[in-house]
């Protein structure tokens, strides 16, 4: 969603809300990091600085089972 620019505007914000909602609604996981937890991630993915493998590592380090 972030890299393909599906919307005219708001792609990063929409992706951020989607990730947070999916984690919260799963009921099985919780986010371990602070308030800015996804901001740098979303920008990094959008700019191409963060690839799939780095994305997996990021989630493994910051999202845990309840």
List the keywords.
66 residues; 9% strand; mainly alpha; globular; two-stranded antiparallel ribbon; Fido; Fido domain-containing protein
Structural features, described:
The protein is mostly helical. The protein has one domain (11-65). The chain has three helices and two strands; from the N terminus they run αβααβ. It has helices at 11-26, 39-47, 52-62; strands spanning 29-31, 63-65. It has a two-stranded antiparallel sheet with strand order 1-2. α1 (11-26) packs across α2. The longest helix has 16 residues, at 11-26. The model has no long low-confidence stretch (mean pLDDT 81). This is Fido domain-containing protein. Residues 1-61 form the Fido domain. InterPro entries: Fido (IPR003812).
What is the number of E strands?
2
- The parts where pLDDT drops under 50 for at least 5 residues are none
Spatially, the strands of the biggest sheet line up as: 1-2
Largest sheet at a glance? 2 strands, antiparallel
**Radius of gyration of CA atoms, rounded to a whole number:** 12 Å
Following the backbone from N to C, one meets helices and strands in this order, namely HEHHE
Secondary-structure-based class equals mainly alpha
Q: Quick check: average pLDDT?
A: 81
Shape descriptor reads: globular
Summarize the amount of helix as a percent range: 40-55%
Terminal Cα span:
27 Å
The helix tally amounts to 3
Q: What share of the residues does DSSP label as strand, in percent? A: 5-15%
The figure for the number of domains is: 1
Organism: Rhodovulum visakhapatnamense
Protein name: Fido domain-containing protein
InterPro entries: Fido
Domain Fido: 1-61
